[in-house]
Design goal:
The chain has 288 residues and is α+β, with helices and mostly antiparallel strands. It is built from ten helices and eight strands. The longest helix has 20 residues. It holds the Pfam family HTH_18. This is Transcriptional regulator, AraC family. Keywords: DNA-binding, Transcription, Transcription regulation.
Length: 288
């Protein structure tokens, strides 16, 4: 398959994947998905499995489970029966069986002590990088004090730090998510950094000092200055598709020089109350 035909084929699958992500709370029939990209219904299951590495039914189930897992871990006010129904299951019992079979933990056990390592292992299927056209704006970012939970180690452990930061935020009341911005600071590229050396900060805007706390939250500052800003729409797991064009295409042609501060994210809305398809994240690349 030559490059142009391959890109057309990939674009057809992108339409299918985008539709699935944006309509997870609705019935998703194979006939409908085939029509979106003009695929033969007879061959679609084989084509999808060859392209992604799992069946279309499994892919849809895992995306629904991912949203359910975030709600279980990060929103303890959500009832398991409601999470089950929202994931497309008719009863909490069928949800519990399927969830346990997939992740090795019941929903209740996952809520109490999520095994994120086992959870991440389930999501190691092929997900081809999509071609993303980004709009780059040059902005001035004001110096911002932040409360930070530092993560050091494999990305599979990152959600542990997220959970601790959320717990501190709720307990302290010092950085309420509805009135204070939420950030992520990416010191390293997970694709090129040894897992044990990967660094990432989960942060919330703060107006006061941060007292000693059980979660190990510390104070830092995002320095003010010029930045290239790109807005990313959709899952945080695909944010690289908006970052790579910034580095590979815009930066070399812009003549801009980078400042000595890492790339960072401003999360305009958050999981689990926002579905992955509706997430909006501003990416900031600090410039001299």
């Amino acid at each position: 398959m030559n490059e142009s035909k391959a890109s057309v084929y990939a674009a057809r699958f992108d339409r299918v994947l985008d539709h699935i992500e944006q309509h997870l709370d609705e019935p998703l029939g194979v006939e409908q998905l085939c029509q979106l990209a003009n695929f033969s219904r007879f061959h679609f299951h084989r084509q999808f499995a060859d392209y992604i590495g799992i069946t279309v039914a499994r892919y849809i189930l895992l995306l629904r489970f991912r949203q359910a897992a975030y709600r279980l871990a990060f929103d303890h006010s959500a009832k398991i029966i409601d999470i089950a129904l929202d994931a497309g299951f008719e009863t909490p019992e069928s949800f519990t069986r399927a969830f346990g079979k997939t992740f090795g933990q019941t929903p209740s056990a996952f809520r109490k002590a999520p095994d994120w390592d086992a959870w991440h292992a389930v999501y190691r299927f092929r997900l081809p990088e999509r071609n993303t056209i980004v709009q780059v704006d040059i902005v001035d970012f004001e110096t911002t004090r932040i409360a930070v939970k530092e993560h050091r180690g494999p990305t599979e452990k990152l959600n542990h730090a997220v959970g601790e930061f959320i717990a501190w935020r709720k307990e302290s009341g010092l950085s309420p998510k509805d009135s204070h911005r939420t950030f992520g600071i990416a010191y390293d590229n997970p694709d090129t950094t040894p897992p044990a050396e990967f660094r990432f900060d989960i942060a919330g805007e703060i107006k006061t000092e941060v007292p000693a706390n059980a979660q190990g939250i510390v104070m830092k500052t995002i320095p003010g200055g010029r930045c290239a800003k790109v807005r990313h729409y959709g899952s945080h797991s695909r944010i690289g598709e908006s970052i790579y064009p910034l580095y590979r295409q815009w930066l070399p042609s812009s003549g801009a020089e980078l400042r000595d501060f890492p790339l960072y994210f401003h999360y305009l809305n958050l999981l689990p109350e926002t579905s992955e398809a509706d997430l909006v994240t501003d990416i900031y690349l600090p410039l001299k």
